[in-house]
Amino acid sequence: MAERIAVIGCGQFGTVLACHAARAGHAVVLWGRTAEEVDPLVSDRASPRIAGLSLPDSLEVTRDARAAMDRADLVLTAIPAQYARAVWKVLVADCPSAAVVVSVAKGFEMGSMMRPSEVLRDVGVQGECVALSGPTIATEVARGLPTALIAAGSEGASQRVQCALTNDAWRIYCSTDQAGVEAAGAIKNVIALAAGMIDGMELGMNAKATLLARGLAEISRLGIAMGGRRDTFFGIAGMGDLATTCFSADGRNRTLGEKIGRGENCEAALRAMDSVVEGVDTCKVVAQLALRYGVDMPIAQAVHSVLFDRIAPRVALQVLMRRSTLEERI
User: What is the pTM of this model?
Assistant: First the structure.
């Protein structure tokens, strides 16, 4: 059944998400906040951020939030975690109370340490909230390459998202573990920064494989402490998303980590990026959450020391390698 869908946020993934939904036969409106974001999409019917991506003729693009969400059945929000509260404080009045609101953000809010769905509820979104997560490198999704995702929320709302967005390129599974799915999507960005540093220092695949295994252990430990279920972290939203973001040349967090591993200054490297790198702010929150829940996260702490204490990546690596050896535990 065709749905009326509003996509909030016309960054890389928001635009790709809107194109995917429109090609699935839904009536889709893509909202952007500024003329700088929206005008190229309207005039050129193409994304300046994703080479080769053409917008379907049926996809409407607007800066009018009220028009975008008018009578929407699904509202898909692709606003990064650190900006979601400010944007949704303005938009919430125009969001239909019966709409299912689907968040694709992967991060935690600074200060509150809330997950994206928690922020939406906190600003007054009345409809059911679903988290949609998984391996979704935007350039691959734009090309129609296959992937699988998890829609996490209530059974009914998750199934509605599943039915609306599943096609030959997207296989969507349902889960009721929203806390685990959102935690996995956020924390993996910190491990992806470390993976990029490994690439920048040219440490090889053995080192990266070790990082993924031990990084997943850290992700699952903190995620379970936050209320997630263990199996979530070894599935699509956990191991699947982690592997993609750690290996893809297009992964923003991995790319930033690689620049730092090659000796670039973090602040300068960030300024050179053309989109938000969620893992940097997420790393600050993860360090705070690890303290709150009493979870040992040596890799995340090493990344934190490189980003914010100006410790050289090779020095941080030595600290990790010289830790006392124990029995492996997950």
Answer: 0.95
Cα–Cα nearest to 285, from 143, 81, 104: 81
Three-state secondary-structure class, residue 27: strand
At residue 325, the pLDDT reads 81
Same domain assignment for residues 244 and 273: yes
Q: Which of 176, 192, 215 is where one domain is finished? A: 176
User: How many angstroms separate the CA atoms of 86 and 76, rounded?
Assistant: 17
Domain count, the chain: 2
List Cβ neighbours of 74 (8 Å cut-off, separation of 6 or more).
3, 4, 5, 6, 99, 100, 101, 102, 160, 161, 164
The residue among 151, 176, 201 that closes a domain is 176
Residue 134: the pLDDT is 97
Q: Are residues 163 and 199 located together in one domain of the fold? A: no
For 5-25, the pLDDT digits (tens) are 999 999 999 999 999 999 999
**Residue 122 CB burial class (10 angstroms; 0-12, 13-18, ≥19):** middle
Say whether pLDDT at 274 is over 80. Answer: no
Q: Is residue 52 within 8 Å of residue 31, measured between CB atoms?
A: no
Q: Which of 188, 208, 259, 284 is catalytic?
A: 188
* One domain, residues 25 and 154: yes
* Residue 259 bears catalytic tag: no
36 domain-assigned: yes
Q: Which long-range contacts (CB under 8 A, 24 or more apart) does 321-324 make?
A: 323/298
